[in-house]
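Hi U.,

Before I forget, here's the chain from the pilot set. I'm dumping it here mostly so it's searchable later in email.
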Amino acid sequence: MLVALAVAALFTLIRFDHSSDLGIFLPNAETLYDRLLRQQLDNSASSSLVLIALTGLPARELAQLNNRMLDRIRATGLFSRAVNNSSNLGADMLEFIERNRYLLTRGDLHERFSAGGFSESLHDRLAGLASAASPLEKQYVRQDPTGEVLELLEFWQGKVSRYKQPSERQGVWFSRDGKRTLILCEIRADVSDMQNQLDATQAIRNIYDEIRVPGLGAILSGPAVFATETSESIKRDGLSLTLAAIVLVLAFLLAAYRSLLTTATLALPIASGVLVAVASVLLLFGHIHGVTLVFGMTLIGVAIDYPVHVLSAGSGQEHSRVETVWRTLRLGVISTLVAYFAFLLSDFNGLQQLGVFTIGGLLAASLTARWILPLIPFSGNGRISGLPRLHDFLKRACTACGRFRMAVPVLSAAAILIMAAGEREILHLNVDSLSPIKQDRRVEGRMLRNDIGVWTGGSMLLITGADKQAVLRDGESLETALARISDEGVIEAYDMPSHFLPSVQRQERNLEALKQTERIRGNLATAMEGTPFRPEVFEPFLMEIETAGDLVPISAEDIENTVIGEKLEPLLFDFEDGAVGIVLLHGVADSEALERFAHGHEGVYYMHIKSASTDLVTRSVIHVSWTMAACLLVIYLVLSAGLRSPVRPFRVMIPTLSSTVVTACILAYSGNPLSIFHLIALLLVIGLGLDYALFFNRIAVNREEWDSTFRSLWVCGITTLLVFGILALSSTPPLRAIGITVVLGTLISMGFGAMWAAAPYGRSGS
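Structure:
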């Protein structure tokens, strides 16, 4: 055993690696649709965006600070784009558009270079020269009479992921109420790498600290910002909460045992459990999630039961008493491990990781408690002798509880009826329930997205094809139908890959039009008749046309590392054996119409992220629930064999399952509908409840043995309450949910276990 612990310690030291991506608590995807959903949840078109708002000062000062901050953000080189107004397009992108406008245009050059097309374009140029856009018109009119650059600029401003223009004051973006000035950034590096997210967000925070003046406030939002905040929060909680739990538990155990050596002895199984748990996860998964790591502190509250019960029996010279306690404890350990086995059979990588962690940790802690603690010389003094008044009070309360035995099934039945017939939401299984982001930060995020008009990730069409060119061609063929449903009010607007990169087939058609130079000259001359334009004004355009025919079509691979390639990547990407294009849908008014639209086009899927993720999580939770039901049957069989009776297991399982049901009902009706993390905690409650109920029903041979068993029970219960009470103070919502649930469940489990306790002593022991 000691050799195994040493190996686990060495392996953990060498291979330790942790992550904070809560995507592992999403189910594994089996169908193509589910795999596409996971891809979008992990790497959507808005995942690289950082939204910044400056507040607290008059508009003029905010605008000045906005421009100062923008200049410094651009100077970092960490962002592919940083903009604060509608004309703030980067020089690289502007040059790319100018050079390739005839390949990138969304129009048909055969039509635009006709006499009628030129005539319409020249009228547009005259109108533009007389408008507020006159400077831009003057800049491009001589070389671009059809306005390809201006059209692309107008269309691309703020794209990808933005479809509404914020208001502008002092030359920069402001919220509509004028209280916030806005900046939109896109991280240049791979945002799936946490270090890149940390570098980018820290750079922005440093710049804000440099420009900050009295009264200035800032709000940062976006997936990368939230990811770094989550990582920092989990790390902070992991350290501070664990230390607080250790201090409180040690102080309590010292008060209970009145022995520093005995208290130190109790820590040995817990330490071995955490060590083996971490090593097991690293061995099987290659890394350990921050939530799983913080979850390790819960082993203090669960695994403490094992050494407490073993020490209550004495040391090696009282081997028979240790063996008697171990028979009961062994049943609890096996039953608990069976319950957690449901995690291993789930579709959630996160739950599988928690399952491996818990099973490995509890198994190591129980074996250490059984085979190592009795060998330690001073463990013979492991009887609980402190806090006598508390012991007497709890013993009287336990005796009184026996008169309310029937309250357990009554409360359980009432809880089931309330949840089944009530109108309250019981389960909260959408993707938001997995979010570690605080509610106030989510509100701020929605506010900034509305201010800037960022696509919220709500609805999309997915176009699948054999390769990227096939997807682009299919997307172009859908444009007429998409424009129709937009006119019908089904959607307000849409963005698609072919808006930013036409297919090679369309580009080749436009190149054919560019080669007809004589036709272009003649049609332009005809269109100029009767206009105020001088004959020579468009010579730069005609000279460029002479060489434009030498352009070659652009593919997605040609621009992978360019500004436009970075914008296109979230919308067009290789996926499995083919490629996928994303059509971002804005202002969806009729989801059913979009479902019908997708079904009418082969290889096209409609996806509403929130609904699809909720369906995926719900299906997987149902699967886990059936697995847990099967595990409960196995637990019954284990208890029947261990207790040598088909009836006695009900004395253990009824209070345990009743406490779980009542806990769930109280949570749901106190404004806490059950998320996946509440369900994780309820499984903890089952494991704890089984342990308490087993020892409440362990028939003692005399008053002294019953008294010793009861002392160990309340020490275990209070230790658990201390640990999970600390966890309930966490600033990370998933950890707080686990803490609150287990605290409530532990109190109810102890009470119900006492109500269904066997006669305290007087019959032969089990």
